[in-house]
Amino acid sequence: QVQLVESGGGLVQAGGSLRLSCAVSGDTFSSYRMGWFRQAPGKEPEFVAAIRWSGGNTVYAGFAKGRFAISRDIAENTVYLEMINLKPEDTGVYCCVAAVSTTFLIPTGADEYEYWGQGTQVTVSS
Fold it and tell me: From CA 62, how far away is CA 66, in angstroms rounded?
């Protein structure tokens, strides 16, 4: 059973930074794609970023490029999302996600990820 446990959310002022962590367990992840989605109240989950566990290739949503960075620590079985220059519109619940994939592609659709964490709240005040 794959488990994803997020941490690192909180309240930050606009322009501030946060680092989210996702501890992963329950399988060997060499063929996994790991990622982050966020969801604001009343809205659908929105893709943020994803990474191939093996190889480290990454993909980002447009709004995340230049401000967010996804990485993984294979030894620690942890996925990170570094966020800088945060804006009020970045507020939401950030969920760690995982999908098994046998292709080189990194999925960006919410329905392409089988495993979801409970999420961690990020609130950016203006």
Answer: 9
37, 46 Cβ separation under 8 angstroms = yes
CA dist 44 and 64 (Å) reads 17
CB 52 within 8 A of CB 33: yes
Q: Which residue is associated with the tokens 């990194």?
A: 106
CA-angle at 93, arms to 89 and 95, nearest 5°: 125
Number of neighbours of residue 69 by Cβ within 10 angstroms: 17
Q: How far apart are CA 27 and CA 40, in angstroms?
A: 30
Largest Cα–Cα distance of the chain, in whole Å? 43
Phi-psi region of 26 (alpha: psi -120 to 50; beta: other; left: phi over 0): left
User: What would the two tokens of residue 31 be?
Assistant: 């063929």
Q: In tens digits, what is the pLDDT along the chain, a chain of 126 residues?
A: 899 999 999 999 999 999 999 999 998 888 899 999 999 999 999 999 999 999 899 999 999 999 999 999 999 999 999 999 999 999 999 999 999 987 888 999 999 999 999 999 999 999
